[in-house]
Design the sequence.
């Protein structure tokens, strides 16, 4: 009897999602509300943040599952600031610990992007243009654009489940 071997490595390398980078300075809950209003979707905050084991950072994430079209939408913060205390090496009359704010990025290649909108489906370019046009109509969003996921080095960070 012949043994058959299937190799699935190449099947999972291709991106089956659309990724949009958003530049804006509002809080995550406010942006989720504005996107819900602008696109007619219902993003809700996940109970737990997205934690990356290698950076010990928690990124806020909002999700919505479109039951009609079987599409998952995720809005995730690209920036996480964490406060840490570092001991000083010299003697001082004042505090012996110094407060340091460390910044972590979900996608280090796009450090200026504040939020990422991930749509777990390959949608047509006309649908992507429609989504981008509606996002750009929101006054609080400075700019939004599609990100080519095939050139990302840290695409493993976009696996949310």
Sequence:
């Amino acid at each position: 009897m012949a043994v058959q071997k299937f190799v699935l490595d190449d099947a999972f390398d291709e991106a089956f999602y659309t990724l949009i980078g958003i530049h804006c300075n509002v809080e995550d809950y406010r942006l989720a509300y504005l996107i819900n209003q602008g696109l007619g979707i219902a993003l809700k905050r996940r109970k737990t943040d997205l934690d990356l084991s290698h950076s010990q950072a928690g990124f806020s994430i909002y999700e919505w599952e479109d039951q009609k079209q079987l599409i998952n939408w995720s809005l995730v913060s690209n920036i996480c600031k964490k406060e840490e205390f570092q001991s000083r090496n010299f003697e001082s009359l004042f505090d012996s610990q110094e407060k340091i704010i460390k910044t972590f990025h979900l996608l280090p290649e796009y450090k200026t992007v504040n939020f990422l909108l991930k749509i777990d489906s390959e949608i047509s370019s006309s649908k992507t243009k429609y989504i981008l046009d509606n996002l750009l109509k929101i006054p609080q969003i400075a700019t939004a654009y599609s990100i080519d996921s095939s050139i990302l080095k840290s695409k493993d960070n976009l696996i949310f489940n």
